[in-house]
Amino acid sequence: MGDRVMNYIVYFPRHLLALAVGLSISGYSLADISTPVVSKAILKELTVTASHTEQDVLNVANTVSVITEDDVQKQQAADIQDMLRYETGVSVRAQPMRAGATFSSVGRGGNEGVNIRGLEGNQVTIQTDGVRLPALYSFGPIVTGRGNYLEPEGYRRAEILRGPSSTLYGSEGLAGAVSFVTKDPEDLLTLGKDVQFNIRTGYASENKSWFTTPAVAARNEQVSAMLLYTQRDAEQLRNQGGVAGVGDTRTQSNPQQIDSDYWLGKLVWDVNDEHRLKFTVESIDRNTDTEVLSGLSSTVTALNADDRVRRDLYKMDYLYQPTSSNGLLRMARISLYQQDSRERQFSDERRTIGDRTRDNEYSELVQGVNAVFESQLGETVTQTFHYGVDYSQTDVQALREGTPAGTSFPDKPFPDTDYQLLGLFVQDEIALGQWRIIPGLRYDSYKLDPATGDQFYRGLPPESLSDSAVSAKLGVVWQQAPLLNWFAQYAEGFRAPTPQDVNSGFTNLSSPFFSYQTIANPDLKAETSRMYEVGLRGRDNQLRYSVSVFRADYKNFIENVAVSGAGTPADPMTYQSINRDKVTVTGIEGDARWQLDPVWAISAGFSWHRGDRRDDEGKTPLASIDPARLLAGLHYDQGEYYADLMLTHEQAKKRNPDADGYSPGSFTTADLMAGWQISRNASLQAGVFNLTDERYTHWADVRDLSADSQVIDAYTQPGRNVRVSFNYQF
């Protein structure tokens, strides 16, 4: 154990430590820090996601958690999975990369998406600055992970809204929403200067990754601007697999080289005290090269994967906030945006007879407008209205190319599709003494208009699809006392079918062993949900807590299933997206933080969910339900130094829908994080994760494995590992 930790420390370059000390001592002394311990109080948590405008969490009827920039830096989060590490009832599926050139897509999606209360993928809204991330797309060997479009260094806050969010955000809000807010110039101008430079750099041993984030911000009386850049280099995750070599029994991670470039630029013009314009450019370009040694065999001599993810966002925001409160309109925010995203996954497979390649692409080009307004009426009984409109038009395309014998390429798995979404919403917050009543209503219409006559689309004639949905919500908050805030809500959600769901069309009759085809379904209905939740939360200077119980009913789940066929060229296996089972999910969640004295605090959190599919044949457990989870934390912070010890316990998986499937056992991990505010300008963070070197797997990653699988260790998480980062601003 000691030798392993020492190896990590030795590997960390000495020049970085020298830089930290040199920069801090050269310009500032330790006297620049206010070292006297100041009494700390539990701070108020603010949320925007719950109502489109900033509010105290105590005033909303939703279960919402907020992750700040300070949290991200303490945890040294490198991706979305790290950011959500200590959130209960939330997980991220991220399998090891073991994909093949043709059939298997295991691990190809990286951080595939967020699971909230047992639902995942396109059933959860993920957005950055109010713009939805591209959809999760899966077809054969391609999976486009939604979490790969994000860079934690660019965000000042992330919010997780649990429960249906369609009354606020429309389609995809079936189970919840995760909202990321990018940094503004004022977030970088922390020293009171008109021009400020910042730099962060760090290292993680779990994948030998480095990142560097230089940033600059400037301002005058009316204009402020910023430019931030993050560069990351990483290798494969060091799991705890013990089998090296080649072939499908390999359990060590396949060799990878990952690099990404992220840019965030903003220009903010305060026209006057009431009007503000903001221009944002955000771009991420991520490349992953994998030598898939686990895919080699007696007939496959080499298999290499080259994947690239790119997202470019251009956005303009107009904000109007009148200085006088006499008018009806208290706030107006209008946003125009364009987002261009592309993912390319290329596989080169060398075989003893007949090499083959796969070149899969998926792209979305979306243009949209979002407008939110706030008005207030009444004096004794105050009503605050939030209302607005969302409109987006997305050009969705996918293309498959390659060189295998017996298959016609290029080929499109679905036709190029124009996908339009329109939403109109209103939410009223009625304040009556200790009571708040929050009704909401949203109308959404969607239209899929596929292109016709495309020579590369060889499926059945494509069909257009249009429909609409109305989502309602009713929330109640009773603020009985600071530590007794009761809340309850009823909320509805929906998810419109995607172009792939409606018009998937592909045929492969070249194999005598397994021939298959996918066919369209123009009669698909939207997935819908209804949720009931009650809870209690409170906050004073020493204690903050929240606990809730819920039940959610879902119907018209969209799944791609085999509907006919024997898998022969004469009778191919036929797959189609259909509306299936009803699903019920129930659960209880909670979290708390208690400030014991000015420097010491403890925290805890828990989640337990149960989900079942229901059809004519009875009910079966819902596979995407995570095991129960318990968190406990001990925190020390006296200003100059801080330390956090976090314990995570996950229960064994007990309800596996597959009787022959692998069910992981329980595990407990410990993480120790600490930091030193060297001077006003410099700080150092360090962490040792999985202190006890626990061997464990996440249910989300292994739920497709059989109980007798020989490669379970390939899905293990890293053993004991360290992270170190350094911040300097001047």
Secondary structure layout plus pairing:
Layout: H1 2-11, H2 14-27, E1 46-47, E2 55-56, E3 63-68, H3 69-75, H4 80-83, E4 90-92, E5 114-116, E6 125-128, E7 131-132, E8 137-139, E9 142-144, E10 155-162, H5 166-169, E11 176-182, H6 185-188, E12 195-204, E13 209-219, E14 223-235, E15 256-270, E16 275-291, E17 300-320, E18 329-351, E19 356-377, E20 382-402, E21 417-432, E22 435-450, E23 465-481, E24 484-495, H7 499-503, E25 506-508, E26 516-519, E27 527-539, E28 543-555, E29 558-564, E30 573-579, E31 582-595, E32 600-615, E33 618-621, E34 629-637, E35 641-650, E36 667-676, E37 682-689, H8 699-702, E38 721-729
Parallel strand pairs: 6-11, 26-30
Antiparallel strand pairs: 1-2, 3-10, 4-5, 6-7, 8-9, 10-11, 12-13, 12-38, 13-14, 14-15, 15-16, 16-17, 17-18, 18-19, 19-20, 20-21, 21-22, 22-23, 23-24, 24-27, 25-26, 27-28, 28-31, 29-30, 31-32, 32-33, 32-34, 34-35, 35-36, 36-37, 37-38
Question: How does this model look, in words?
Answer:
The protein has 730 residues and is mainly beta. The protein has one domain: TonB-dependent receptor, beta-barrel domain (Maltoporin, Chain A), CATH 2.40.170.20. Helices cover 7% and strands 53% of the residues. The model is unreliable at 1-39 (pLDDT under 50).
Task: Report the C-alpha radius of gyration, rounded.
Answer: 26 Å
CATH topology assignment: Maltoporin, Chain A
**Mind describing the biggest β-sheet?**
22 strands, antiparallel, barrel
Tell the overall outline: globular
Compute the separation of the termini in Å: 39 Å
Round the mean pLDDT to the nearest integer and report it: 90
